[in-house]
Amino acid sequence: MLGLGTAALAGLYDEVVEADAIATVQHAVELGLRLFDTAPLYGNGLAEERLGSALAHVPTDAVVVSTKVGRLLTSEGGADPDSIFKGAPALRPVFDFSADGVARSLEDSLRRLGRSRVDIVHVHDPDDHEDQALRETIPALMRWRDEGVVGAIGVGMNQAEMLTRFARETDIDCVLCAGRYTLLDQTGLVELLPVCTSNDVAVIIGGVFNSGLLADPRPGAHFDYVPVADEVLDRAIRISDACREHDVPLKAAALQFPLGHAAVACVLTGTRSVAELEENARLVEHHLPVELWSSLRSKGLLDDHVPTPG
């Protein structure tokens, strides 16, 4: 299953006009996408507002909307000069994983989305706030789930280790793991995915292109949001060469790879336009020969125990 992430539609790195953002979301609905992921951080609330506008006339039971808690938006101090979101409101996101803070965050998100409830709420990047998230945030989300304000609860992070702890020790429904179960990085397979399988926790995979490296592996590309190291770039190029040998677009292999694991329910991709969305929709359906995976294994680019599509 393919889902749509909305960070790019809120001006991630480059500004996107509102009409294009709304058209992209609405076309995603037409193409049959059902999971739409957003967060207050994305464009300082802009992603939530645009998603809410785009889905205003879509029946609530026709889509699954997920947002996140853990950051509040404040006007104090003005806009963040280092923000990676262009054209965003002059607000500043601040971490707040307290029960009161996440309650305010959810209330603000519902207002921006124009909804009375949300299908999934993730704890967003609690890397430096692990204990407080376990002690305050998760119990608050569980209460809202019991009250029906939230359909399901999860945790979204760019690492697998802490996600594993949440999946093992708390009553969450899902995790959003970004960049840690991809063609290039299978860290999530060590503990996270087995624990999720055992505990019936659904896995949503983001960052399948690893900051764009698996879309276009070249010198100067980024991996995990920083310039790629030579050895990682070399591995990405070798993966790309193997795909080319089997006449497979690298992006198609990257998109479909995580879906080979039974625990993975959805792959999220962020797109900036209808054209990018349609490309991803085609690539996720592109036929991948089984020989591709055999080739990657024979070249030492994929371990024998890693499950693959097909």
Radius of gyration: 19 Å
Q: Segments where pLDDT lies below 50 for 5+ residues? A: none
Share of residues in strands: 15-25%
Summarize the biggest pleated sheet: 8 strands, parallel, barrel
The total of helices stands at 10
Short structural summary:
With 310 residues, this protein is α/β, with parallel strands linked by helices. It has helices spanning 18-31, 46-54, 99-113, 130-147, 161-169, 192-198, 230-245, 250-256, 274-283, 290-298; strands at residues 2-5, 35-37, 64-69, 71-74, 92-95, 118-124, 150-157, 174-178, 202-206, 222-223, 226-227, 264-270.
Structure description:
With 310 residues, the protein is α/β, with parallel strands linked by helices. 37% of the residues lie in helices and 18% in strands. The chain contains ten helices and twelve strands. It has helices at residues 18-31, 46-54, 99-113, 130-147, 161-169, 192-198, 230-245, 250-256, 274-283, 290-298; strands at 2-5, 35-37, 64-69, 71-74, 92-95, 118-124, 150-157, 174-178, 202-206, 222-223, 226-227, 264-270. Helix 5 (161-169) runs parallel beside helix 6. The chain is globular. 47% of the residues are buried. The model has no long low-confidence stretch (mean pLDDT 97).
